[in-house]
């Protein structure tokens, strides 16, 4: 989306996720804990959608021996990631692009947070399959993004709840309404059942829901 390349929007990026994503900090903590169940102490981790660097920083601070490859299509967001990481950037390699621009691995774990909803279903499935191909057998993958019931009436209700949460968390009401409209018209929104099926079709096993918060869902699965 265009705002990921706008310097003013990028400079304020870190303010957004905690207001729009319930339990944002806890989502990072839960993701790390799920990865540590199988990842070694010196894990090499693939982070797709790494722009901004917030999850990279959370993971790197908590796991001092992990190294990371972060991938994002927006150069401005990768620049922000570098600034967010500070000295931690020594353990991170940043790559501009999409999954095809990611190193081949093999990786001990992977994440894709707040990203897959930007992709159409077929591209989402292909991306998930390419992530799995880069993982060691049995390695964990955590994905979390916008995913909620899409039936008539339910979609509008959940989007209204999304905006209401943002306002209750301190977002400007006009900004919340704009974000709601953008999600409704520009994102490839799927139901949780459809999203789970995509992960299984991509070759992941033991797909489990671990996070559900208004319009957001998160899964852990294994290569």
Provide an overview of this structure.
It is a single chain. The chain has 223 residues and is α/β, with parallel strands linked by helices. Helices cover 43% and strands 20% of the residues. The protein contains nine helices and seven strands, in the order αααβαβαββαβαααββ. It has a seven-stranded mixed sheet with strand order 3-2-1-4-5-7-6, sandwiched between helices. Helix 4 (54-62) links the parallel strand 1 (44-48) and strand 2. Helix 7 (154-168) packs antiparallel against helix 8. The model has no long low-confidence stretch (mean pLDDT 93).
Can you lay out the helices and strands and say which pair or pack?
Elements: H1 7-11, H2 16-20, H3 24-36, E1 44-48, H4 54-62, E2 67-72, H5 75-85, E3 92-96, E4 109-113, H6 121-133, E5 140-146, H7 154-168, H8 173-186, H9 192-201, E6 205-213, E7 216-222
Parallel strand pairs: 1-2, 1-4, 2-3, 4-5
Antiparallel strand pairs: 5-7, 6-7
Helix pairs in contact: 7-8
Provide the descriptors you would attach to this structure in a database record.
single chain; 223 residues; alpha/beta; 7-stranded mixed sheet; 9 helices; 20% strand
What's the number of helices?
Answer: 9
Shape: globular
Number of E strands: 7
Biggest beta-sheet profile = 7 strands, mixed
Determine the N-to-C terminus distance. Answer: 30 Å
Helical amount: 40-55%
Strand portion: 15-25%
Spatial strand sequence of the major β-sheet: 3-2-1-4-5-7-6
- Give the class from helix and strand content and strand pairing: alpha/beta
Order of helices and strands: HHHEHEHEEHEHHHEE
């Amino acid at each position: 989306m265009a705002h990921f390349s706008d310097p003013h929007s990028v400079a304020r990026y870190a303010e957004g996720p905690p207001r729009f994503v319930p339990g944002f900090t806890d989502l990072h903590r839960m993701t790390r804990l799920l990865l540590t169940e199988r990842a070694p102490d010196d894990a090499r981790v693939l982070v797709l959608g790494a722009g901004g660097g917030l999850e990279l920083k959370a993971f790197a601070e908590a796991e001092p021996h992990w190294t990371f490859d972060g991938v994002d299509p927006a150069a401005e967001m990768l620049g922000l990631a570098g600034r967010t990481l500070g000295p931690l950037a020594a353990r991170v390699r940043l790559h501009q692009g999409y999954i095809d621009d990611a190193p081949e691995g093999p990786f001990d774990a992977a994440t894709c947070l707040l990203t897959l909803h930007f992709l159409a279903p077929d591209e989402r499935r292909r991306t998930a399959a390419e992530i799995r191909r880069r993982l060691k057998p049995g390695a964990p993958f955590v994905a979390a993004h916008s995913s909620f019931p899409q039936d008539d009436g339910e979609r509008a209700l959940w989007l209204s709840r999304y905006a209401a949460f943002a306002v209750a968390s301190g977002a400007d009401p006009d900004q919340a309404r704009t974000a709601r409209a953008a999600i409704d018209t520009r994102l490839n929104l799927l139901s949780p059942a459809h999203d789970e099926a995509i992960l299984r079709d991509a070759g992941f096993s033991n797909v489990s829901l671990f996070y559900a918060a208004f319009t957001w869902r998160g899964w852990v699965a294994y290569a």
